[in-house]
């Protein structure tokens, strides 16, 4: 049903475009009523769903003027929007090959051809055309945005930085957060290589990122990561801890890093005190959102231990529960053994993806994982935990 309706709409648009062309033409040139016969033929083929024959007839037209060129472009775009990119490319390529085409029409058609390539995944071809056009046309903002999209997909961060700066200088659009993310991407690429030189370069990139956005949470975390890789665990810990103050809503992103750092410092027990201290925070993120607070009073240690084990088994243990669990270990009510250590580890591992989902404030995309760039709308810094975005007065009932 959907296909039938979309096909009908598609045909109506094509036929109207052609009729419009014919009426304009006959209005201005009453004497020479020379409607190209190919137009009527191709219209016939379109109506009978013979798209390739329609395109062949259309492209066989001997001469192309401004009006017919626009109809070519529209027809190609419609095929592209329907997902028939091969046909769109054929139409747009054929038009560009016409020697009689005016420069501005050729530019317009080149943009559409590059969009066809972009849609069909020929990023290098799209890049070539967009790059050339970005220097040729008067207002290249749109073209530059396409190039930015291509470099993001190709993870060509340095080129993306150049383009973002060009966009900023042409349009005054604030690209500082985006550029800051590009530098973070460059830094991350260096950090995974782990050598001293790579870490030094990573640090330079991270500082650049902070130059563009001094509050960049991502860059602040990266500085901790760089110290960690440099085995400067005390400094790493200090930097991770600072996230709990500066960005409490995102502290779950560094919790596991804090644990690893304590492990490397050989002071696991300090991590337990740290987790305990989290429960004292006045507004402790969403960490306590699904806490089951009810504990029976007259319960022996074995039962207590089993009760907690089953909670951890279910994978639903919140950090508050973990904190209480650690308290009980301290009070010798639960044994500090492999079993309890495993519970703690499992809880921390599952914590970030069990408590809530991440949501993009721009397009509503949601996922278990956190992304710096939304995979759906490609906005940067738009994703955070969805539970946190809901106010307490949120009265939606699902
Ligand atoms: Zn989004």
Overall description:
The protein is mostly helical and 398 residues long. It has three domains: 2-173, Tetratricopeptide repeat domain (Serine Threonine Protein Phosphatase 5, Tetratricopeptide repeat); 178-354, Serine Threonine Protein Phosphatase 5, Tetratricopeptide repeat, CATH 1.25.40; 358-389, no CATH class. The protein is 67% helix and 2% strand. The protein contains 19 helices and three strands. The protein has helices spanning 2-28, 37-47, 51-59, 66-81, 85-96, 103-120, 123-136, 141-153, 157-171, 176-191, 196-212, 217-229, 233-246, 252-265, 268-278, 301-314, 319-330, 338-354, 386-389; strands at residues 358-360, 366-367, 383-385. A three-stranded antiparallel sheet has the order 2-1-3. It starts with a helix and ends in a 9-residue tail after the last helix. Residues 281-298 and 388-398 have low confidence and may be disordered. Zinc ion (ZN) is lined by residues 360, 362-363, 365, 374, 376-377, 379, 382.
The residue-averaged pLDDT reads 81
Q: What is the tally of helical segments?
A: 19
Number of strands: 3
Order of helices and strands: HHHHHHHHHHHHHHHHHHEEEH
Chemical compounds bound to the protein: zinc ion
Strand content: under 5%
In spatial order, strands of the major sheet run: 2-1-3
Distance between the termini: 31 Å
Number of domains: 3
Question: Under CATH, the topology of the largest domain is which?
Answer: Serine Threonine Protein Phosphatase 5, Tetratricopeptide repeat
Overall shape: it is elongated
Main sheet? 3 strands, antiparallel
Helical content (DSSP H or I, runs of 4+): 55-70%
């Amino acid at each position: 049903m959907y296909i039938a309706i979309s096909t009908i709409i598609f045909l109506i648009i094509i036929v109207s475009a052609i009729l419009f062309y014919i009426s304009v033409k006959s209005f201005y040139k009453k004497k020479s009523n020379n409607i190209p016969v190919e137009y009527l033929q191709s219209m016939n083929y379109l109506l009978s769903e013979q798209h390739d024959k329609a395109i062949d007839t259309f492209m066989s037209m001997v001469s192309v003027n401004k009006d017919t060129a626009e109809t070519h472009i529209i027809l190609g775009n419609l095929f592209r929007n329907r997902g028939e990119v091969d046909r769109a490319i054929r139409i747009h390529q054929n038009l560009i090959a016409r020697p009689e085409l005016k420069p501005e029409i050729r530019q317009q058609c080149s943009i559409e051809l590059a969009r066809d390539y972009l849609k069909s995944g020929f990023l290098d071809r799209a890049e070539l055309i967009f790059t050339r056009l970005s220097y040729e046309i008067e207002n290249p903002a749109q073209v530059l945005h396409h190039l930015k999209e291509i470099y993001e997909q190709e993870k060509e961060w340095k080129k993306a930085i150049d383009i973002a700066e060009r966009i900023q200088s042409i349009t005054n659009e604030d690209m500082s957060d985006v550029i800051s993310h590009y530098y973070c991407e460059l830094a991350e690429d260096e950090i995974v290589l782990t050598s001293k030189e790579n870490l030094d370069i990573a640090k330079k990139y991270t500082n650049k990122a902070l130059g563009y956005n001094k509050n960049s949470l991502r860059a602040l975390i990266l500085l901790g990561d760089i110290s960690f890789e440099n085995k400067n665990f005390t400094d790493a810990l200090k930097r991770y801890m600072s996230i709990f103050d500066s960005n409490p809503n995102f502290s779950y992103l560094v919790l596991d890093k804090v644990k690893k750092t304590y492990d490397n410092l050989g002071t696991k027990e300090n991590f337990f005190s740290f987790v305990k201290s989290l429960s004292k925070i006045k507004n402790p993120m969403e960490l306590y959102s699904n806490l089951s607070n009810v504990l029976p009073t007259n319960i022996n240690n074995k039962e207590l231990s089993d009760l907690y084990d089953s909670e951890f088994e279910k994978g639903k243990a919140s950090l508050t529960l973990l904190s209480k669990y650690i308290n009980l270990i301290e009070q010798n009510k639960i044994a500090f053994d492999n079993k309890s250590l495993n519970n703690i580890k499992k809880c921390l591992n599952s914590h970030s993806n069990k408590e809530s989902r991440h949501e993009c404030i721009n397009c509503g995309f949601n996922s278990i994982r956190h992304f710096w760039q939304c995979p759906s709308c490609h906005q940067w810094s738009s994703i955070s935990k969805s539970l946190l975005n809901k106010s307490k007065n949120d009265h939606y009932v699902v």
